Amino acid sequence: MPELTDLHDLASDVRERVVIPPYDEVTRRVRARRLRTATGGIAAAVLVVGGVGVWQSLSPTAGPPGQPAGQTSGQTSGQTSGQTPLPDTDEGLWRKVVDGTDSHPFETEGSTDGAIAVVWRALEQPGPTFALVIREADGTVHGRRLDEPFDLTPLPDGGWIGVDGGYVATIGTNGTIAQVRGSGPSRPARPGDVFVHGEYGVNMLYRPSDRSLSTMPILYGDIADGYVTPDGELVTCGRGQGGVTLTVGDKIGPNVPGATCVLAGRGDDVTMVGLGDDPDGGIPMTGLVVAHGDQVVQPRMTTMLGGVTSVLITPAGTTVITDASTGDWYLLGADGAFRPTDRKVGQAFLAGERLYVTQYGFMNAPLSWSDDDGRTWHEAQLPGNEE
Amino acid sequence: MHDDRLREVYAVAYPRLVVQLVGVTGNPAEAEDVVMEAFARAVPRRSSFHDADNPEAWLRTVAVNVARSRWRRMLRWAHVLPELVTPTSYADLPEERLALLAALRQLPATQREAIALHHLADLPVAEVAFTLGVPEGTVKARLARGRAALAEVLTDSSKEEDHARAD
Fold first, then answer.
1. Which has the minimum average pLDDT: A178-187, A235-244, A279-288?
2. Cβ of A82 under 8 Å from any chain B Cβ?
3. Which of A2, A107, A282, B55 is geometrically suited to a Cys-Cys bond with B96, CB 3.0 to 4.6 A?
């Protein structure tokens, strides 16, 4: 049986086996990034002049204005550029990731207007490659190769805010991408603000009306997650005395056991799920609090999920909590009653009015969607896997 | 000038950083990739890298942050997510070392980072605290909890192996 003291042996075993790649590998990465950035700048200029999405569009009905159906802006730019590197939006580049070695969705998120975004990852040597593929509600697909994956948070009026380390950008469902620069001092939340998990655990509020970021106001406890209601009320949860606490504005709400928490919000409805910190690395569900405006309840639960992958509230007010590690999930109706579930699922997310779930245990499998809170299901391909 | 300095640091620090990040990522292939990414990020950040008192520590912090960012995403899919293909140079790592890496992967991220940087990479507590951006007391607490958790995981793994042999 290995012991803690064996860590030294592990270090020396690894040290003996490290093969230093040529320094050219560093410069190759940097050069590729610079070229892509430069080409992105050119493409952005095209966007301003032509009013056409800079991302490649694969519309099932027609191509962008001025181009034959099936021919894309990315291909045109790449073909006419000679020595110019292909833009990130070239289909060949992002398709290579989607079809790459052991490729799989790394992040999947829906948009309020019905679009779905998938960050794909392929396990190539010498390092993984990433691509973002978006399918709009009308079926139009946009793709882009990425250097690093984004964390995606849906925005109220459609699209997402993406965070990659210190880089923050808005991502439109039509494929446009625009950097959001800097983060200002904290300020009170306003209607329309969006809670964003930033780099190194620093949380922020994004204000779509002026595309600005601000640091979070100082609040009770150690803030783990947040949500801004349509009235501009900031709801947070975090570790406080005796567990994790839901806080609405300056009103400290109920506690549940746990080390951290996750929040979901829709209108004035908010769900907080408490999460533990097991010695074996597990992050089990430890409690549930549901708030409808000022009315806060803690539903009685006989068993908790072993892990929590996603938490959301559907348009009908049903709370959905999934655990991709076991496929188990809960559906808690707006009437406070748990509904039985007849299938195992992975992650759940909302796109428009539809509830989507990924298939349990199969990351590349088609999505299932429901517009009646899981009573009937339909199938849809992952963006990038369209035929 | 900057490039020459980075090349020098690369030649000396690359293997050390990979060793330090192996414990943080729990995977040699991920460790090599995040270290390479840290060097690539140093190139456009000439001034902050050049001004750093300890360039290796600067690179280590960037590499740990890249690893954290990826780990957060992978947590959701730990049971089905394929791993990076491990370079052939690590293919002959002894079983016990692989078991140790597997055990490290089961620790909460904060404990794994502290254990890896202190016990595997031999960094003093103060340097671990600097790398992780937390007070030394926090590192000590994470080390204590991490050691206990690692011992428990390793004991459980050993019991499972014994049961499997008995069956």
1. A279-288
2. no
3. A2
Q: Name the residue with tokens 């245990």.
A: A361
Q: Which of A9, A13, A309 to mutate to test the interface with B (most CBs of B within 10 A)?
A: A13
CA distance A23 to chain B (A): 7
- Read off the tokens for A310: 């996603």
Residue A123 touches chain B, beta carbons under 8 Å: yes
Q: For residue A61, report the phi and psi dihedrals to the nearest 5 degrees.
A: -110, -45
Closest CA to A366 of A351, A346, A350, A352: A346
Q: Max alpha carbon distance in chain A (Å)?
A: 67
Cβ-count burial A126-144 (b if 16+ within 10 Å, e if not): ebbbbbbbbbbeeebbbbb
Order of strands, sheet of A354-359, starting from the edge strand that comes earlier in the sequence: A345-351, A354-359, A367-370, A378-380
Q: Does B119 touch chain A (CB under 8 A)?
A: yes
Structure tokens at A186: 């904290």
Say yes or no: B39 contacts chain A, CB-CB below 8 A: yes
Q: Determine the Cα angle at B84 with ends B116 and B152, to 5°.
A: 40
Q: CB under 8 Å, gap of 24 or more: what pairs does B119-123 form?
A: B119/A4, B119/A7, B119/A8, B119/B23, B119/B143, B119/B147, B120/A7, B120/A8, B120/A10, B120/A11, B120/B19, B120/B20, B120/B22, B120/B23, B121/A11, B121/B16, B121/B19, B121/B20, B121/B23, B122/A8, B122/A11, B123/B20
Tokens of A112: 């309020």
Residues of chain A by 3-state class (helix, strand, coil), percent to 5 = 15, 35, 50
Taking an 8 Å cut-off on Cβ atoms, the answer to whether A101 and B155 are in contact is: no
- Please provide residue A252's backbone torsions phi and psi, each rounded to the nearest 5 degrees: -85, 125
Highest mean pLDDT among A53-57, A194-198, A287-291: A287-291
- ipTM, two decimals, is 0.82
What does pTM read for this prediction? Answer: 0.67
Report, in this order, helix, strand and coil percent for chain B, each rounded to 5: 80, 0, 20
Min Cα–Cα distance to chain B from A295, Å: 31
Report CB contact under 8 Å: A1, B157: yes
What does the pLDDT look like over B98-120, one tens digit per residue?
Answer: 888 888 888 877 888 999 999 98
Residue A217, token pair as written in the block: 């106001």
- Contact flag A125-B66 (C-beta cutoff 8 Å): no
Domain B2-166 -> CATH class: mainly alpha
What letter would DSSP give residue A184? B
Give the C-alpha separation, B5 to B50, whole Å: 8
Identify which of A99, A95, A117, A121 has the alpha carbon closest to the alpha carbon of residue A108.
A117
For A263-274, write each residue's pLDDT tens digit: 999 999 999 999
Is the four-CA dihedral A336, A238, B67, A29 of positive or negative sign? positive
Distance from the Cα of B107 to chain A's closest Cα (Å) equals 4
Amino acid making up residue A367: L
Contact indicator for A156, A137 with CB cutoff of 8 Å? no
